[in-house]
Amino acid sequence: MRSIPKRSKNKSCLPNCASRFTNCRIILDCIEIFAAVPWQSMKNHRLTYSSYKHRNTLKRLVGVAPNGVITYASDLYPGSPSDKSIVASCGILQQMEVGNLILANKGFLICAPFFVNAAIYPRANSQYRMYC
């Protein structure tokens, strides 16, 4: 899943609750999963260790279309790289077009190209919530 759908495709299947976001192309988040790494390979152990999770992990950027369909999945990255560094290196920003909107959570701190809007929504435990 490396090629995300065009905005016109997303627009044609927007649910009613997302009708205000007609320029939204993708919603981004990263997932971090535990990884079993053999002790024989100390180099791989060191590369995949997450100081945040205190375990060996792999991290992936996932993109979801406004209608809830998973449309993008990056390569797996070892350890705990920042969300911002994954976005910068995976090539997803190069697929954006003029006027696209990217929704992401507070941890991303991404600086999208000048023609793309990036909306960072509040944390889940914040007093501000997004509802459809």
TrEMBL record:
Residues 28-110 form the DDE Tnp4 domain. The keyword Metal-binding applies. Its cofactor is a divalent metal cation. It comes from the Eukaryota. Keywords: Metal-binding. It holds the Pfam family DDE_Tnp_4. InterPro entries: HARBI1_dom. One of its GO terms (molecular function) is metal ion binding. This is DDE Tnp4 domain-containing protein. It comes from Pyrocoelia pectoralis.
